[in-house]
Structures are given as C-alpha cells and as structure tokens.
Amino acid sequence: MKVLGIGNAIVDVICKVEESFLSENNLTKSTMKLVDEDEFKKLLIKLRIEKTISGGSIANSVVGLSQLGNKVGFIGKVNDDKLGRKYSEGLTKENVKFHYNIKSEKMPTGTCLILITPDSERTMCTFLGTAGKINENDIDDKIIKESEITFLEGYLWDVGDPQKAFNKAINNSKKSAMSLSDLFCVDRHKDYFLDLVKNKLNITFANEQEIIALIGAKNFDDVINFTKEIKRLIIITRGEKGSMAIQDNNVIECKAKKNLKIKDLTGAGDLFAAGFLHGYVNDLSLKESLEKGTELSAKIIQQIGARF
Questions:
Q1: Residues paired with residue 79 on neighbouring β-strands, in sequence order
Q2: Distance between CA 157 and CA 275 in Å, rounded?
Q3: Quick one: which of 30, 245, 253, 280 could link to 286 by a disulfide (CB 3.0–4.6 Å)?
Q4: Which whole number is the average pLDDT over 171-200?
Q5: Residues with Cβ within 8 Å of residue 258, at least 6 apart in sequence
C-alpha cells in the first residue's frame, strides 16, 4: 500500500445550526469537544440532520487518496452494530481496504456531530464510543510494514491502550505521518506531541494555530526556526495565507485559492493532507504536493461534508 491510515472510525452526523445554538449549549466555535453518550443524545434531539456519512479525519484523507488512484488501507475500531457495518461498507465502496475485523464490543460505534454555522465554520461534538478503545491487538504490524507511509491522527491518541497502539504503529512504520488534528488535542497532549514531532514522526500536518501552540511560539518566524532545527518535514496550513512545507532549510509556500463559494469547512485539512500525500508518495515535488493539497481542500469546502 502507498498509505495506511490509522484513526478514529467515526460516523459523521452533519447539522446546520445558528450561532445561538453554540452559546446555548456551551460550545466553543471551530473546536472539537468530547462528549459522553448521554450528552450526545441530548444535543441530537434538538437538531435536524442534514447528512450522515462515514467519517473520521484520517479516514477522510485515505478515501481522498483512494479517489486519486492510490492503493490505501485503514485501521479503526467499530462495533458490530448498524453504524459499524455502514462504516465498513462506506470504505469498501471507496476501494479502501478496511484492516479491522468487526466484532461485538461493549460500546457502540463512534459518532461525531458536525455543527455548521452560517459562516461555514464547523464545531464538533464527538462521542468516541468504541473508536477510542483501540489497542495494540487492533494494530497488525505486518500490514504496517507493507505500507510506504503510516498516517495517524492526533484525535486518536490518549493515555493507555490508544497510546500503546499509536507507539506500535510508529515503531513498525517505514515512514510515519501525523495530523495534530485540533488545538484541543495539542493543549491536552502537548509534551507527548512535541516529542513525536521532534523525534519520531517523518511528516507532521498542522494548521498555524496548532503549531504555534505546540511550540509556544511568539510569532511565525519561531515556527520556521523550530522546524529548520529539528530537520523534519512539517506541513502547515494557514487559511487565506495559503500553505507551507518546511524541511531542513527549505521553506516552500503555496497560495490559497480565491473567490471560492464556501459551504462547509469540514474536511479542509483532511483533504489537504490527502492531496499532499498523493504528491509525496508519487514523487512529485514539495511545491507540487502543496498545490495538489490546496486543490483538493478548495474543492471540498465548496460542498457539504468531508468526502467527494
């Protein structure tokens, strides 16, 4: 395989809301909040569902890579329930090999409420369910060793079994890549993420806010200097400022596309990563890879949902 994704297997439930819904339910716009099953159900009762689709950050990236013609796979934990089976079917339809044997679990398949406000920003409430219970036994090191890149998500990492699964994946990878996922994740696991970025990962994907928070930067020059020092490949998305790849002493920039009819920012980072990795595993230059990521990201935000 070109890329094996390992992440939270989450079914996305997409809903449009007014700004007031966020404040009334103590939600911070543009962030992800973990909720328990009861809180998830209470929120869902108040909403009208626009769309339900198999999701999860890395799974979205892997589907994008498949659609570009790459041989890819995915590992993520689901329950043998209606949503879990739907999740598996969704990957199969997209020619993604699902390297997980579905079985009955104590918790249901994970679900994420994606709340889209009129400005197209998305705020997420995630009930991880069994997705957050991934462990070493769910990670097949033989599959990892047969993949050019193992791509992980910061959302997946947590103390205990998920951490052990994460480390097993990285230790057996030819090359490892990770998305920092969300400012919430960075703040929660800063020391561990910093160690990964500096010492273990070959490629890190982050937005400007996440990388600044991770290293405690005063300005963006600090980010560039940090990346040059650690000599790892870091890919940074900067919204309207475009994107950047930094490796060794090379700083490569790509402008954002303009005059887009934005409907939903969900999946912008996921599809950017898909486009970039497509270029990377097919021997395109860093500049060309950034351009492919920008192309896919611009396309996905002009529709509802994180998959084409």
A1: 103
A2: 24
A3: 245
A4: 95
A5: none
* Pairing status of strand 49-55 against strand 149-153: unpaired
φ, ψ for residue 85, nearest 5 deg: -70, -40
Picking from 249, 261, 244, the residue whose alpha carbon sits closest to that of residue 301 is 261
The reply to whether CATH 3.40.1190.20 applies to domain 3-300 is yes
User: Tell me, what amino acid is at 100?
Assistant: Y
Query: Residue ranges per domain, the chain?
Result: 3-300
Question: For residue 195, what are its two tokens?
Answer: 């160690």
Closest CA to 22 of 11, 12, 33: 33
Given a cut of 90, is residue 244 above it in pLDDT? yes
- pTM score of the predicted model: 0.89
What mean pLDDT comes out for the span 271-278? Answer: 98
d(CA 283, CA 268): 23
The helix (run of H) or strand (run of E) holding residue 64 is helix 57-67
What CA–CA distance (Å, rounded) separates 127 from 213?
A: 25
Return the closest-CA partner of residue 279 out of 263, 302, 295, 267.
295
Higher pLDDT, 134 or 267: 134
